[in-house]
Structures are given as structure tokens and as C-alpha cells.
Amino acid sequence: MERINLWSEWGIVITVVLISIPVIIAAFIVFYRTRAIIQAFLQKKEVENFQRYLQMMSPEEKAQLEEKERASAYRLNNQELGSDRKAKDSRGLINQVQEVTDLRFIEKKKKSQPRPNIDPAHSKLILWYIGCAIFWLVFGTSVGEYLGIKFVAPDIDHLSWLSFGRLRPVHTNAVFWGWASLAMIGLAYYVIPRVSNAAIPSVRAAYASLILINTSVVAGTLSLMAGINNSGGEYREYTWPVMLLFGLGVFISLRNFYKNIAIRSTKEIYVSNWYIISAMMFVLVIAVVAYWPSWQNGLGETIIQGYYMHQGVGMWFMLFNLGLMYYFLPQQLNKPIYSYSLGIVAFWSQILFYTLIGTHHFIFSAIPWWLQTIAIIGSVGMIIPVVAGTTNFLMTFKGSWHKLASSYTLPFYLVGIVFYFTGSLQGTAEAFRFTNLIWHFTDFTVAHSHLTMYGIICFMLWGFIYTLVPRLTGKEPPQLLVGSHFWLAFIGLLFYTIPLMLGSTLRGMMWMEGKAFIESVELMAPFWLWRAIGGSLMWFSHLIFAYNFYLMVRKTKGQSIPNSPSEILKAKQALETQGIEIAG
Ligand code: HEM
Ligand code: HEM
pTM (2 decimals)? Predict the structure, then answer.
């Protein structure tokens, strides 16, 4: 058969261009951060030289310098030409000047309303959610790491409980329902009361939800390892009673959030809440549809599986994270979101297109051709919300790029946004018929899954967690450890995905040329080794992340922040007995 010219295929060209974007962005981040470090070092040297120079000065020179400083500090009092009597201003020309809001040279910070202080019980709840989520991240990716090693050393064990077929869904479900879902709901327990300016209705209900979701993942993991599963498609391997616990957990939190928004003291419902509430409503609908008994066989089941898989990632993880981003990004940059309306356009277009694209998982299957075509068109339509969302976030960044050099959280946000653009549009290219023909049964989809679930969802969640937890506990992790987490995860992800994409393209072409299957397995061996290396870096970064979380929440001996008036009084008295004066 004639060899295919890949460069004449749009889907391939688009993918190559998209994948080079994060690599270029990484180079930029490295450049800016290195420049900032060098500049800080040079400034420090300059200050040191100046200090040495000051020390070597004679007393006369010092006196001269002080005189000069006094002279340059002199300011006119602006009353020299008039008197201190008030000007007559009967028409209000001076005292009632209105601000011209549309001619703004400096961004105006959105006026914040007085907000309730976050009470310790609420803060503890959020930390419990995040702590449990991190446990599932470490557990789930330890299983993922082991699975990656199995591709390189398939005979590593012969235990049925640890077989690939059982552990793979343990990995995917633990990171989906344990890690990402709990982290998102935990963060929402901060965002929703904040933007509604009202306290969370029931902290007890929030704990009940946490317990139910955790129980569901524990029960699901054990039953999958024991070989008990739903015998259905991907991410739907938990049996229905196990998934019911998860659904109940989400339902309880949804009710709590709904009530919270209903008692809000703000006029509008901030766009974050639109996204979060919808995501929670969608996931319940998706779960009920996917587990409904009447279509668990035949072609109908396949169509439902496509619907479930893509609504799961798109209408649960993606929609929820976008909602969190609309809150945390403006907070972190200390300015309003670039365009509220663009956020609403992205919201409705995401709902319109994302719900149509499930069948793109089964291109060339027995599903009607027209349904596949609709899914491909919907995948192209996804360009609208993705471009709208990315533009909104990047334009919010505009004018604040310099903050990237010094902030340890913003690089996580930026990488999440960049992967939102590249990972999603790479999905669009993957839905085209030709590219799908090459890539469908290969590891290309696995690379896409990690570019999106890891590159978008995990990076965004890490950025939000590093933003929020220090606010709750008052403790920041060391910059070096956060940097190590970032770079190991980022470089690891590139090592994981890029070789897999390359190898899978070669593999797909081999199949189209009719070569033997085993030859394609041999071809993939070095690419799987790269995946194991990248996966190990990612896994190691999660251990650092867990340690950073511990540093942010651990109790420091002998140090407690007095909160109530009586605690403050006691602390004051204790200091005074030690002879320490307190101002005020
Ligand atoms: C414009 C948006 C997107 C489009 C058009 C798209 C397209 C696709 C396509 C065509 C496939 C199937 C590949 C195949 O089996 O041949 C796929 C799989 C997948 N996508 Fe996306 N994708 C998009 C965004 C996302 C996002 C945002 C996420 C995660 C947050 C995601 C996660 C996944 C996952 C996990 C799979 C693997 C499903 C499986 O196990 O078969 N995708 N995507
Ligand atoms: C140390 C980090 C990780 C490693 C080493 C890893 C490894 C793996 C491996 C070996 C597979 C099986 C691939 C196959 O069947 O060929 C897999 C599948 C998957 N993993 Fe991970 N993973 C990691 C982190 C994550 C995280 C954090 C998420 C989500 C938040 C995730 C989501 C998925 C998904 C959705 C699949 C199914 C892919 C598909 O069917 O297309 N992984 N992972």
C-alpha cells in the first residue's frame, strides 16, 4: 500500500501546532523566571555594594548626603498661591466632580462588599475535602504509575487483584471521583458562600456529602480489585449501588449550594455559580442516564456510553473548573474578569455543543452515520466556547504578565488555560474522520485524556488549592517545593504525552498498511518507556504536593492565632507579663 502523507492532513497539522504551544509557553516561563532570579540577584549585589560604600564614607560626606536627602524630600504644600480658606463652589464644580468611568487608564478593582469572616468550622470543612482529595490523588496515581510500569515489565506480578484489567478502572475512577471531584466540591464550599455573601446553610450536610463520596470510592476500589464491576463501559465500572452513594453525596452538596445561592445578599448570581450549579445538575443527570436499566445492551448502550464519557469530562470536570476559574483568576490578579458577557457566551455555547459530541468516541462504528457526523460538527462547534473562555482568561491576564515571574500560583493557572485551549482543540482535530481512523484504537486517546484531565483539570485545581489553603491557614509552602511540584508535573506530562502521540501515529499507520499487530507492539515499547519515565516524574510531583499541603495545614507548636475578644485579651496579658509592649 502507498505510504500516507501525514502532512497533507489538517487534523495532523493542527495537532502538531497545538502541541508545540505548551512547549513554547514552558520556554517563556523558564525565560521570565530565570530573568527575574538574575535581576533579583543583581539588585541584591547593587544594594550590598551601596551599603559597603556608605560604610566607607567619612562623617562629612554622610552629613552632606543627609542634607541632600532632606532637600530632595522638601515638598510644596500647594497653598503657596492662595490661602487655606475654602473656595466658593455653589455649583459643585470642584466638590462634586463625577468620575468619567469609560476613560480609564488604570484597571479599576471591583468594589468588594463587606464579607463575613470565614469561620474556623467552615475552613476546617474545606481543608477536609482537599485533604481527602489529595489522598485519592496520591493513591490513584500510584496505581497509574504501576500500570505504566506494567507496560514496560508486563510480568511484574501474577495476582488477579493487581491485574491490568482490574487496576486500570481503579486508577481512572479514583482520580475522577476521589481526587478531582472532591477537590472541586471542596473549593466550591469556599467560592459559593463567598460570592453569595452568605454563610453556608449546613456544615453537617457538607460532611455527610464528603463521607458518602469517600465511601463510594473506597467501596468502588475494593469491589473493582475483587473483580466485581458493572461490566459496562469506561468510567462506569462501579456497580450501581456504589455509584448511588456518589450521586447522593453530590446531591446533598448541590442542595446545600442551591440554598446558599437562594439566601445570597448580592443582587446578581456571579458567573462562577452558574457554572458550578450546572455542572452538579449535569453530573446527576448523566449518572442516572448512564445507569438506567432499560438501555444497558446493544447499540443504544454504546450511544449512551459516548454521551456519558464526554458529558462526564465536559459537563462535570470542565464546567465546574471553569466556574472556579472565574472566581480564582480575578482574585489572584486583583482585578475583575475581562468580560462577564463572554463568560455567559462560553457557558451557553458549551452547553449547546458539548452535549452533542458523545458519539465522536465511536466514529466508524455501527452507530448511524448521521449521528457520527453531528458529533464531528459539534466537536468543531466546541471551538466557540473554548476560544471564548481562553480569550476571557488571557485578556484578564493582560497587563499582569509580570506577576508570573514572582507568583508561585499563577504558572499553574496559565498552564491550565493553555492546555484548555490546546487539549480541547486537539480533541476537535481527533474527531475528524481521517485522524480518528489512524488514532482511535491506539494510545493517542490516552495521551489526549492526560493532556486534558491532567493538563487542564489538575493544573487548575493545584493553582486554586495553592491560592486558597494559605488564606485559610495563614501558612505558605516554600517556593522551591511548589516550583518542584510544578516543573516535575509539567515536564512529566510532556514526556508522558508527546512520545505516546508520536508512537501512536506510527502505530496507526502500520495498521493501515496491514502490518502484523505484534510488530506494532514492538514499535511502541520505547514510547511506553517514555510514558513510564514521564509518569514517574508526575507521580513524584504529587508526593511533593501532598507534603506542601501538610506544611500548609500542620499545627505549629506554641503558635495559635487568637480569634475571639477574650482570646485576644489573654494573649495580650501573656505578652505584657513577658514585658512586651503592645501598640494600640
Ligand atoms: C473541544 C473539546 C474536545 C473535543 C472535541 C474532544 C474530542 C475527543 C475525542 C474525539 C475523543 C475520542 C477519541 C477516540 O476514542 O478515538 C476524546 C476522548 C477523550 N477526551 Fe476529549 N475532547 C475535548 C475536550 C476534552 C476535555 C476538556 C477533557 C477533559 C477534561 C477530555 C477528556 C477526554 C477523555 C478522558 C477521553 C477518553 C475517553 C475514552 O476513554 O475513550 N476531552 N475526546
Ligand atoms: C502519575 C500520574 C499518572 C500516571 C502514571 C497515569 C497512568 C495511566 C495509565 C498507564 C493508564 C492506562 C492507559 C492504557 O490503558 O493504555 C491511564 C489511564 C487513564 N488515566 Fe492516568 N495516569 C496518571 C495520572 C492521571 C490523572 C491525575 C488523571 C485524571 C485526573 C488520569 C486520568 C486517566 C484517564 C482518564 C485514563 C483513561 C485513558 C483513556 O481511556 O483514554 N490519570 N493512566
Answer: 0.85
What would the DSSP string read from start to end of 379-428? HHHTHHHHHHHHHHHHHHHTT-GGGGGT-SSHHHHHHHHHHHHHHHHHHH
CB distance 168 to ligand 1 below 6 Å:
no
- Could you tell me if residue 370 is inside a domain? yes
Best residue among 305, 350, 448 to mutate for probing ligand 1's pocket (most ligand atoms within 8 Å of CB) is: 448
Separation between Cα atoms, residue 240 and residue 152, nearest integer Å: 34
Kindly state the percentage of the chain with pLDDT values over 90: 68
User: What is the total count of domains within the chain?
Assistant: 1
Say what the pLDDT of residue 114 is. 45
Gap between the Cα atoms of 7 and 12, Å rounded: 7
365-382 tens-digit pLDDT:
999 999 999 999 999 999
Q: Return the pLDDT at 115.
A: 47
Burial of 234 per CB tally in 10 Å (0-12, 13-18, 19+):
middle
Angstrom CA distances, 134 to 130, 223, 392, 471, 544, stand at 6, 22, 29, 18, 11
Range with the poorest average pLDDT among 30-39, 212-221, 450-459, 563-572: 563-572
The per-residue pLDDT for 523 is: 96
Q: DSSP per residue over 14-63, as a string?
A: HHHHHHHHHHHHHHHHHHHHHHHHHHHHHHHHHHHHHHHHHHT--HHHHH
Position 97 pLDDT exceeds 70: no
Name the residue among 141, 193, 225, 211 with its Cα closest to residue 462: 141
* pLDDT confidence band for 567 (50 / 70 / 90): low
Mean pLDDT estimate for the chain: 89
- Residue 223 CB neighbour total at 10 angstroms: 19
Q: How confident is the model at residue 406 (pLDDT cuts 50, 70, 90)?
A: confident
Which of ligand 1's atoms lies nearest the C-alpha of 380?
5
Any domain includes 34:
no
For helices 203-225 and 164-173, angle between their N-to-C axes, nearest 10 degrees: 170
Q: What CATH number corresponds to the domain at position 422?
A: 1.20.210.10
- Nearest CA-CA partner of 313 in 347, 344, 283: 283
Does residue 68 register a pLDDT over 80? yes
Provide the residue range defining the domain that includes 544: 121-553
Q: Which ligand is nearest to the CA of 365?
A: 1
Picking from 458, 479, 325, 485, the residue whose alpha carbon sits closest to that of residue 407 is 479
Distance 425 CA to ligand 1 centre (A): 10
In a mutational test of the pocket of ligand 2, which residue from 149, 172, 529 has the highest number of ligand atoms less than 8 Å from its CB? 172
Is residue 319 in a domain? Answer: yes
- Is residue 53 a part of any domain in this protein? no
Q: Is the separation of the CB atoms in 288 and 300 below 8 Å?
A: no
Q: pLDDT per residue over 460-484, tens digit each?
A: 999 999 999 999 998 999 999 999 9
